[in-house]
Specification:
alpha+beta, five-stranded antiparallel β-sheet, 18 strands, globular
Length: 364
């Protein structure tokens, strides 16, 4: 814990013992989302080269009540002798909306000061903040120029994420909005005797099956795979709590496995692993369709399929964008923001990053 001079705020690093009160604050906040939860912080800590630096702030003048949570990671990334390392906050700060104007102003200053301290301590040039419109999607309809990060940084830009409005459509209307090709793939997968089933019980078999498909998927796409511990944590600790897993089968052959996050009144297409045969038979299309029907039964309001890549020149991202869009999704803001120490160094980093993308057709 670090008490600030001439201030009533304390900054405390997140530890597992803080999970309960961290999650309570997040759930009670109208802006809290799945990516802010302690489970996500613990799962993401299993990613290679990711170090959890998340912190929360308490108010000594009010019984040490939590007034802000900030998920943030140090991401070490050194390639071709150049340092791309950064700080990354998926979700960004969540602050107590009931604070007085004076306290709110001091709290924002405190968070910005901590950001600058972390930039210096870890010798990085940039903090990247991002989040989708969930769960405050209703506040941003027709207001795409707004950003939840405006209080913390001057560099803000909006991209898009694909979302299905489950609450306003019947299941028939949702299906009718599908791209014709998507409907045909789903119909064909059914004639090929594919079935999608929810996996409700955590087991080592489920972990092993998912990881086998994950390794195949990432090898096919020439991406370094995640550690097995990441998926073990999700399956052992989040299944039936804030995650659901579906498998798509052709008779006894497992073709695809999908993980979906569920939080408050919304769901998100989280991660997927698929075999070559699964791609051949359209397993992912059938899986998404069966999940949509499940989410409607659960009376959820929104289903996010993920970030749009409408302007990307990367062929894989263009294909992924078309896949998500083909389910009749509507684009909603995907908010991004940056805190940059040296804009010239950042420009050089971006030039080298883009050059590597052009040469390899994948992210650096």
């Amino acid at each position: 814990m670090r008490k600030l001079k001439n201030n009533y705020f304390n900054i405390r690093r997140f530890e597992n013992i803080h999970s309960e009160k961290w999650d309570r604050f997040n759930f009670e906040s109208k802006n809290g989302w799945l990516w802010h939860t302690s489970d996500i912080l613990r799962a993401k800590s299993e990613w290679k080269n990711y170090k959890n630096l998340s912190f929360f702030i308490t108010d000594d003048s009010n019984k040490s009540k939590i007034v802000a949570i900030v998920p943030i990671f140090y991401v070490e990334n050194i390639k071709f002798f150049f340092n791309y390392s950064r700080l990354e906050s998926n979700g960004g700060p969540i602050i107590d909306q009931k604070l007085s104007q004076m306290k709110r102003k001091k709290l924002i200053t405190t968070i910005k000061t901590e950001f600058n301290m972390l930039l210096s301590r870890y010798k990085v040039n940039k903090i990247e903040l991002s989040r989708s419109s969930l769960p405050f999607i209703d506040n941003f309809k027709n207001k795409t120029n707004n950003t939840p990060f405006a209080l913390f940084t001057d560099i803000n830009f909006n991209e898009s994420t694909w979302i299905i409005e489950l609450c306003s459509l019947t299941i028939k209307q949702i299906y009718n909005n599908f791209d014709p090709k998507t409907k045909n793939v789903i119909k064909k997968s059914v004639t090929e005797s594919l079935v999608a089933r929810e996996i409700k019980t955590p087991s080592q078999k489920t972990i092993n099956s998912y990881y086998k498909l994950h390794l195949e998927t990432y090898k096919r796409n020439k991406i370094e795979p995640h550690k097995k511990e990441y998926f073990s944590f999700i399956i052992n600790n989040m299944l039936n709590k804030s995650a659901k897993i579906f498998g798509v089968y052709k008779e006894t052959e497992l073709l695809s496995m999908m993980v979906f996050g569920i939080y408050k009144d919304s769901a998100i297409y989280w991660t997927n692993a698929c075999s070559s045969n699964g791609l051949k038979y359209g397993a992912n299309y059938l899986g998404i369709w069966e999940v949509i029907k499940k989410l409607k039964k659960l009376k959820l309001n929104y289903f996010e399929l993920g970030e749009a890549f409408q302007s990307s020149m990367n062929e894989k991202k263009k294909g992924l964008n078309h896949f998500k869009k083909s389910f009749g999704c509507i684009p909603y803001p995907y908010f991004k923001s940056e805190i940059v120490k040296n804009k010239y160094r950042d420009l050089l980093t971006q030039i080298l990053y883009n050059l590597k993308n052009d040469l390899t057709n994948k992210d650096a």
